Amino acid sequence: MAAGHRIGLWMKKVGSTAMFDATTGSRVPVTLLLLEDTFVVGTKVSGIHGYDAVVLGTKRRGVVNKPQVQALRKLGIEEDYKLFESRVKAVGDLQPGSKVEVSHFFKGQFVDVTGYTIGRGFAGVMKRHNFRGLRASHGVSISHRSQGSTGQCQDPGRVFKGKKMAGHMGDSKVTMQNLQVMLVDEKEALLVVRGTGIPGAEGSYVFVRDAVKKPVPKGEALSESMAG
To answer: Which of 54, 59, 108, 138 is found 20 to 30 A from 128 (Cα to Cα)?
Structure first.
């Protein structure tokens, strides 16, 4: 996270829909992100740990070691919470045990969303790289979807690194930048983000933070305790 930005949160991708823009009247595709129970577990300061960060716990599947279990028990939090860190410029007055609400984000701001694309397994070049394949007839035998030649002759006598070939497709870490928040539903703990290109399947988790290429949000909707 860029210095000066606030904490980021893990949110669950629950689906996609559409809504109408009140100003233009146009139909806008959106993605719904659910913030499950998230608590502040602890803080780290540069004077002791070498950097400033907030340790958060969110209710999702994950491996929790014994020291983390003890930290959760002291705060009266269930042990099935997954811990993660979010770096900030300054910790501020965050108190362990306090709950983070979806109102941490607000309507109109821009966010960056990071997730993992859906895995496609081992894929050929036509599916993975959009190759056209070989001819359907005239000398081609049982290799219509192959990629053809991959290298040169004796010089250089090898295949260059980065050559587009068949291989594992998907399950890659992808960040969608500058997505606008269309709506914040505090009652349902939902964050409605513009666009449907957020990586991952329904039910997967994505990391949402303030956009690094946009100014740090300011205004009454922000809590000073959450500001970096």
So the answer is: 138
Give the 3-state secondary structure of 138-181.
CCCCCCCCCCCCCCCECCECCCCCCCCCCEEECCCEEEEEEEEE
Distance between CA atoms of residues 101 and 58, nearest Å: 12
**Do 20 and 129 share a domain, yes or no?**
yes
**Which amino acid, residue 222?**
L
Q: Splitting the chain (228 residues) into consecutive groups of 10 residues, what average pLDDT does each group show? A: 68 95 90 92 86 84 76 74 82 79 91 96 96 90 90 87 95 95 94 94 93 74 40
Residue-range definition of the domain harbouring residue 8? 1-34+101-136+165-227
Per the confidence metrics, is the pTM higher than 0.90? no
Residue 180: strand pairing partners: 110
Contact of 1 with 89, CB cutoff 8 Å: no
Q: Which residue has the tokens 């599916």?
A: 127
- Cα 10 to Cα 206: distance, rounded to the nearest angstrom: 6
